[in-house]
Amino acid sequence: SAVLGLSVGGDVRAPTLTLAVSVLAGFLARQAADVWCGLPDGDERRLPVGLLAGAYTLVCAGTGLLTAVAHGLWLLLPIGMAGTAAAAASLVFSRLGRKASLAMDLTGLAGLGLVAPAFEYCATGVFSQRTTALWLLSTVFFAGRPLQVRFFTRCRATRSSLAQRLQSGWPTLLYQAAALAVASGAADRLKLV
User: Which listed site, 34, 94, 100, 112, has its alpha carbon 20 to 30 Å from 189?
Assistant: First the structure.
């Protein structure tokens, strides 16, 4: 997602590098928080894992704020808050287990979809129609992943034949084809390519 945003923005400079640190720290904070939540109350690992999650969160917020303030990229603040909200909601859904696994996946991937436009905005310094289209493209692309995972899980669990796998894979293939067609049409209309 970051590579996509940078390739569209076309310029690797100081703000994109500090944003990369912020995004990476955010992912690490989310993972550490998930591990912390999964540990029993009396587990001695809770304190170090919690401190690690807190440290990553501080690095994420600090470098994100530094990027926004030092370079005047103020729209990174709402993008960062939306990404943080998506990560927090995904964490809550992950605690609910299989009952909310699709909601967890889609929420997390909506947050992940914000990475490409944030990098494009950092690289160009301009929030435009292209930035919005990039967010939609990223979100639609990443949202197809849970469908693919569910397809593979279903096929492995049932030890299905090739014909059964092809039949159950059509929703995923149709989604990806439709998403590609919509994204290509939007890119052409907005003169992104």
Answer: 112
The candidate with the shortest Cα–Cα distance to 35, out of 90, 84, 91, is 91
Whole-model pTM over 0.90: no
Instruction: Report the C-alpha gap between 97 and 157 in whole angstroms.
Output: 19
Say if residues 161 and 132 touch (Cβ distance below 8 Å): no
Three-state SS for 139-172 is: HHHHHHHHHHHHHHHHHHHHCCCHHHHHHHHHHH
pLDDT tens sequence across 171-187: 777 777 787 777 677 66
pLDDT bin (cut points 50, 70, 90) of residue 50 is: very high
Burial, 151: exposed, middle or buried (Cβ in 10 Å; 0-12, 13-18, 19+)?
Answer: middle
